[in-house]
Amino acid sequence: MDNFKVYNPTCLIFGKDVAQNIGKKALEFGSRVLLVYGKGSVLKNGAYAAVTESLKAQGITVTEYSGIKSNPVYEDVDAAAALAREVHADAVIAVGGGSVIDSAKVISLTAKANHSSWDFISDTRKPSASLPLLCVLTMAATGSEMNPYAVIQNDKTRQKIGYGHPLMYPRYSFLDPSYTLSVPYNYTSYGITDVIVHSLEAYFGKGDCDLSDRIATAIIKECMHKGQMLLSDLNNYDLRADIMLASTLGLNGTTFYGKSYGDWGVHNIGHELSLLYDIPHGASLSIALPSWLRLQASRIPDKINKLGKDLFDVSDVESTVNGFINFFKATGTPVKLSELTGAFNRAEILQQFTVNKVSGSCHTLSREDYEFLLDNML
Ligand code: NZQ
Ligand code: ZN
């Protein structure tokens, strides 16, 4: 087992109607908030109404920044941070999925700075302060609601970078599964894939810890079992709650006990695909995972076979890969780029992987590996 540290200050509040208490919690930080959301789903699923009513009931002044796009960009973060400074916001409130929460995390840092958010993401400047962040999650997927990470995109430099800092832990996260009832079939499926792959990034990370590996596979089994039930019954509150809980546990640190760090190779491949072709995050992962596993077949066969035995009761790598492929096909998420519409250019992807040095932290990837991955993904 590797040495490890546990720190997670986020107060998670889970269940029906919990977001109605956000006003009281926000008041702990002051009477002016910046409310951040995406392209409008929260106006339809009740989350926006519950949050704004609760804030107004406490006399809190609300300034809004909306329009955050999926696979969010730093320009929105900079504009929202400038607005937060202008209105002297005391806190930032995110209502939405991972893209909104990630943006709000970096807005909370940038509001306290006098330069672009990209300086933080590209690691050229270090943050020293942040506005308190409160989140209302409307989509089960990223785990952003209880972790210190954000993934932000820069189309000019062609980078989508995952950034982490303890100042970005949300102070409060409100998780009402009711708000996820409106997530359509495809994004529900992408979210389930994301949770599975977060668990795998920990499983294939640095450090041997059987208990953490069993926690990771328990989360994957929950996603596969309850996820398939949910996809045939999208209005089922209890199944939405099960997947929401799995998504938080998938990336709030629980699966990393006994590990120094995760691998993140599959995510790093997926981020480049999302950047180039605006592919939803979960879909990029279901495309990347089978090829990554095949690439590792001769390098870490025992670790993959242990996974295959536990998840699918099989004892070789190819059957394990097929177990994942069958699940992804059954849940309608792609396993090849060719299943998506778009002109995918092999040379462009290869160039992108090379320039951004796509790799994992434990299982490094070479130029020859990129060729292998592309042979399998296209
Ligand atoms: O923009 P709106 O209108 O809100 O629509 C969103 C968006 O179109 C919609 N949606 C969200 N909640 C909904 C809903 N539609 C109907 N009903 C609801 N209740 O769903 C679409 C996708 O939303 P988005 O926030 O982009 O999805 P997700 O939560 O999967 O977040 C993806 C982003 O998170 C990053 C990804 O790279 C990607 O940029 N990640 C963040 C991580 C983290 N912070 O720890 C880790 C992850 O591995 C991931 O990389
Ligand atoms: Zn992810």
Describe the protein.
The structure is a single chain. The longest helix has 22 residues, at 210-231. The protein has helices at 22-27, 41-44, 47-57, 74-86, 98-110, 118-121, 185-203, 210-231, 237-250, 265-277, 281-295, 301-312, 317-330, 346-355, 367-377; strands at 11-14, 32-37, 61-65, 91-96, 133-137, 149-154, 159-164, 172-175. It is 48% helix and 11% strand. The radius of gyration is 20 Å and the shape is globular. Helix 7 (185-203) packs antiparallel against helix 8 and helix 10 (265-277) packs across helix 11 (281-295). The relative contact order is 0.12. The chain has a six-stranded parallel beta sheet, with helices on both faces. Strands 6-7 form a two-stranded antiparallel ribbon. The chain folds into two domains: 11-180, Rossmann fold, CATH 3.40.50; 185-377, Dehydroquinate synthase-like, alpha domain, CATH 1.20.1090. It has 378 residues and is of the alpha/beta class. The chain is built from 15 helices and eight strands. The model has no long low-confidence stretch (mean pLDDT 97). Zinc ion binds at residues 142, 194, 197-198, 267, 281. 5,6-dihydroxy-NADP is lined by residues 38-42, 45, 70-72, 96-100, 102, 138-139, 141-144, 147, 149-151, 179-180, 182-183, 187, 191, 194, 251, 267, 281.
- The termini sit apart by 37 Å
Secondary-structure-based class equals alpha/beta
CATH architecture of the largest domain: Up-down Bundle
**Total number of distinct structural domains:** 2
Helix fraction by DSSP (H/I, runs of at least 4): 40-55%
**Mean pLDDT across all residues, rounded?**
97
Bound ligand species: 5,6-dihydroxy-NADP, zinc ion
